[in-house]
Structure formats: C-alpha cells, structure tokens
Amino acid sequence: MPGTALRTWAAEFAGGTAAKAIAELNARHPWSHNDHFHSWILANLPPRRRAWRAWRA
Fold this sequence. Notes:
Layout: H1 2-12, H2 17-28, H3 33-43, H4 47-56
C-alpha cells in the first residue's frame, strides 16, 4: 500500500508530532470527500446518467 510508508514516517517523525498535529486538525475540521465532490460528479456524468437523476426527482 503506497500510503503506508508516509503514515509510518509521520508517526515516527519528531516523535509523532506531525501525525498528532494532522489528527488534531482533522478532528477540528472533519469533512467528507463524498459531500465535497458530489456536485462535481453529478456535473460530469454522461448524459444518459442525468436522465436517471431527473427520474428520481
């Protein structure tokens, strides 16, 4: 897994200070990739998918 090396480095760098800081930042400002990119995904679907959305509404 490519991200494993970065996680290991962050956990070990400066006694884990970097990893702790990032974890605290994420705890204060949580966000969802799904919520953030939902409108972009809908705007970039092929035309046949847009018909499904109109049917659902």
